[in-house]
Automatic annotation (TrEMBL):
One Gene Ontology CC term in the entry: cytosol
Keyword Nucleotidyltransferase: no
Biological process terms in GO annotation: cytoplasmic translational termination
Keywords on record: Cytoplasm, Protein biosynthesis
NCBIfam families (alphabetical): frr (TIGR00496)
Pfam family, one: RRF
Protein name: Ribosome-recycling factor
Family, similarity comment: Belongs to the RRF family.
Entry-linked InterPro entries: Ribosome_recyc_fac, Ribosome_recyc_fac_dom, RRF_sf
Domain Ribosome recycling factor residues, every copy: 23-185
Keyword match Cytoplasm: yes
Amino acid sequence: MADDIEIDTGDLERRMDGAMNSLKTEFASLRTGRASASMLEPVQVDAYGQMTPINQVGTVNVPEPRMVTINVWDKGLVGKVEKAIRESGLGINPQLNGTIIMLPIPELNEERRKELTKVASQYAEHARVAVRNVRRDGMDKIKKAKADGMSEDDQKFWETEVQDLTDRFIKLVDDALEHKQAEIMQV
């Protein structure tokens, strides 16, 4: 196979890994009843004419297990930060104290826990779709290489490689989902 056509599985793996990293970020935003600064990562604030992450307009702290505070640097943005948190779907009611926004994290009831596991499932499905799209791109490259003269044996080899890579990442997504759902349902 020295002068045969090769498929860049490293690129496919990087792209699938990107889908996993995206899933981990989305999972971090799902609250599990404990305060975490990472739960605010997906929240964007309309600051200075563009959407900006909260951690770029203020300092995010976790002073106690059930409280997140944001010390907003610019007084004029306090209302916008509060509005962004209210509209984020996190289910947290911000409380203002000057330029400090306090986010008390309420206990999760059973209904809310089940809702969050469904959201986690949706995030995992998006990651699976992203992985499958990368797989499709890889298979398309193999078909193109076949048309450019790749042997049938090489085609089968590369298809198996891409499928094994896909199966491995789908399993990682499923394992991450199972872990996150167990964490959410833990009382």
